[in-house]
Amino acid sequence: MRLNKQHKTQQQKADKAIDAAADNAGVTTAQTEGTAAVEAVSPTVAAKDAAKAEVAKKISRKKLAAIESTPNATKEEKKMRLNKQHKTQQQKADKAIDAAADNAGVTTAQTEGTAAVEAVSPTVAAKDAAKAEVAKKISRKKLAAIESTPNATKEEKKMRLNKQHKTQQQKADKAIDAAADNAGVTTAQTEGTAAVEAVSPTVAAKDAAKAEVAKKISRKKLAAIESTPNATKEEKDAAKQAAQDAATKSR
Fold first, then answer.
1. pLDDT tens digits, residue range 117-175?
2. How far apart are CA 216 and CA 204, in angstroms?
């Protein structure tokens, strides 16, 4: 378009100057100047630069804000993805725009480049990996250690494992999700793992049963011994002590 219009304009000026020349020297001068003016015409290069600028604009505050709010992505994941992927897609788009032969090709390269930039999103991995590590601590080795807890009943072991492990894992997962960066994820993982490893059954049933046995040496029992007919004080005291010793032994 630039060539057609500008060349025509310069040619018309040259023709007028030639027509206005009074002698051969004037004709030659007008021809020389007209030729130089025509040769000076060059296209206005704008389409490709404008297309590149449009692609670059897509890495805008709005796009960055959208990526910034990606669920569960750490600060490092967001930053790395933005820097690397946006730069890669922009470079690809620029090359495609430069290689376009006409405006239609420029438009196509711009459209495809813009779509590629908009498709960039962080790779979310750190938090899921941390959660998996916490979950692994509820492993056969840990379960076996709890299973061998002295004096814990089957029900106590099972209830403690199910409830406490689940509680600690949920707390760890929340802390990991709330972490803003990789360092925070690591801290939450470490603390969550420690909490899971600290879980042990509450041993109470057997002690409670023993306590119930001990209660049987109650006032009623002692009263029964005390009221034994014909027993001397020493015999009663001995009987009370024997009962207490038996209860203590049963515990």
1. 777 766 767 788 888 888 787 665 566 666 676 776 677 666 656 677 778 888 888 98
2. 19
Task: Say if residues 172 and 127 touch (Cβ distance below 8 Å).
Answer: no
Q: How far is CA 147 from the centre of its chain?
A: 35
AA letter at 23: D
Q: What is the CA radius of gyration of the chain?
A: 45
7 C-beta neighbours (distance < 10 Å), count? 14
Query: How far apart, in whole angstroms, are the C-alpha atoms of residue 201 and residue 194?
Result: 16
Residue 164 DSSP symbol: I
> What pTM, to 2 d.p., does this model score?
0.45
Residue 224: partners with Cβ closer than 8 Å, 6 or more residues away: none
pLDDT at 79 over 50: yes
Count of alpha carbons within 13 angstroms of residue 140, beta-carbon side = 0
- Measured CA distances, 8 to 4, 14, 70 (Å): 6, 10, 56
Size of the chain, expressed as the number of residues it contains? 251
Question: Residue 1: is its pLDDT beyond 60?
Answer: no
Is residue 77 packed enough to be buried (19+ CB in 10 Å), middle (13-18) or exposed (0-12)? buried
Question: How high is the pLDDT of residue 220?
Answer: 64
